[in-house]
Amino acid sequence: MRALIGGLGPDWVAKDDTEIPAMKLGALRVRVMAAALNRADLYMLEGTYSPNLKTGDVYPAGMEFAGVVETSSPLAPHFPVGTRVMGVTMGAFADYALCDPRMVLPMPDGLSFEEAATLPVALATENDALAQAGFTSGDSVLIVGGTTSIGLVAIALAKALGAATVVATTTSADKRPAMIEAGADVTVDTSTEDLATAVLAATDGRGADVTLDHIGGDLFSHLPAATRVGGAIVNIGRLAGPGTSLDLDQLAFRRQRLIGTTFSVRTPDELGDVCGALHAAVLPALADGKIRPRIDKIFPFDRAIDAADRLRSNEALGKILLSFADGPADEPAHRAPIANFFGSITQLGYVVRDIDASIDGFVKCGIGPWFLLRNVQPENFTYNGKPSGMAMDVAVANSGTMQIEIITPVNDEPSMYRDFLDAGHEGLQHFAYWSTDYQDLYDRALAAGFTVGQEGQLGGPTGRFAYLKTEHHPGTCIEISDLGGAKAQLFDYVELAARNWDGTHPVQVIDPAMLAAR
């Protein structure tokens, strides 16, 4: 796959033969469609930023993406294969990325991959900052650095969560309309206007309840005067530098809380909590269109350095993106995912040469009673798509909720049972999934690329079954079976009999006509 690698020089190194990341316990693998640049990506190249997620001095670059789940995780059943997602992970600048499901979010309908890729870091950071500040609906919010890509998201987020007044700052007069578009009620050009005076005028002389600062530097010293008595100031970014002067008397007399926050030092558990907090109110607001992303420019993979230079120029208004939608040069066919849509195994099926001897062996293991049907010939039975007159002896019994089935073919008509025995096998031949919506399961299996080896029905159209060509151990395959009609009644009776079995009458011979359609 294609990937950008950091730590090998002043810029990322593009590679087109990187190994697709191997699966790890609990992780999702995502086919990346778009990835967004962050200041943190540049700081990592400079060596001044080393988040906990970074894997070493040489590292897979990128930390924010949108794409499609390519390999699911049993620990994240809410993200099945094919789910459109966005999230945070190291290695996002690649065709495939391995992700912690806790840092992955579902993409709302109506968003493109490019739009979605602009949002995860900003939404998680700003929502967490508001929460730390004690923001509640009706508060006024001052956003310093409102024309940064994260600042524009902060404006929209604060309004979506119920801020009464949002004041946002810039040093570029021509960028003020972008802040109004994002939802700001008042904009301030701090290169020509006094910040405290403008904020007090917008808040009836009180000052902002919450101030979110993305700039730092000299401007930071003006924030206590622009923030109300008892308010909170949260420093998120330091674009103007980490150094500042601060009148501590003013901070103390105004009884303000000063909070510092950053993504970089957080553990995966902490980042998972921050991303998870978006589900309650932020994702619904995004789905309702109350938060709209802003894209500055989209670059193809082979122009990643141009994208970095665009971010360095400070001319961007909105997020800068890399597109991976054109896919890797060669998508291996064997990488096609298989989703677990079958459900839980309900039956283990054995094919043997001597059904009576096999029943006796299971009885000695405490499984019974057995219901034996002789010379059963399924209706409409086909083998590899052609009609077959296959007949069989069949016995079923339960061990708890698991049904055990034993089959012996009694003629030479073609079937997968006969293939199994002719290949020298004997024993477990299939495991079965039962469904009350057989047609849906059948259609999904075929759509996923499975092939039917044999199929037929027992007891009419509500007793259909199909064996799929899915060998894992030699000869074994998947059966899907319709759980309806007389067959369902028989299976219920078999389970009930096993539950109450006292060891007597271990074999009950029943008439195959019992399965006839009713």
Report on this structure.
The protein has 518 residues and is α/β, with parallel strands linked by helices. β24 (452-457) and β25 form a beta hairpin. α3 packs across α4 (149-160). The two termini are 57 Å apart.
Feature tags:
eleven-stranded mixed β-sheet; 518 residues; alpha/beta
Give me the secondary-structure topology.
Elements: E1 3-6, E2 13-15, E3 28-36, H1 39-46, E4 59-60, E5 64-71, E6 84-88, E7 96-99, E8 104-106, H2 113-117, H3 120-133, E9 140-144, H4 149-160, E10 165-170, H5 176-182, E11 186-189, H6 195-202, E12 208-213, H7 223-226, E13 227-235, H8 248-253, E14 257-260, H9 268-276, H10 282-287, E15 295-300, H11 304-312, E16 319-323, E17 347-351, H12 355-364, E18 370-376, E19 379-383, E20 386-387, E21 392-399, E22 402-409, H13 416-422, E23 427-435, H14 438-447, E24 452-457, E25 464-468, E26 477-482, H15 485-499, E27 507-509
Parallel strand pairs: 9-10, 9-12, 10-11, 12-13, 13-14, 15-16, 17-22, 18-27, 23-26
Antiparallel strand pairs: 1-2, 1-4, 3-5, 3-7, 3-16, 5-6, 6-8, 17-23, 18-21, 19-20, 19-24, 21-22, 24-25, 25-26
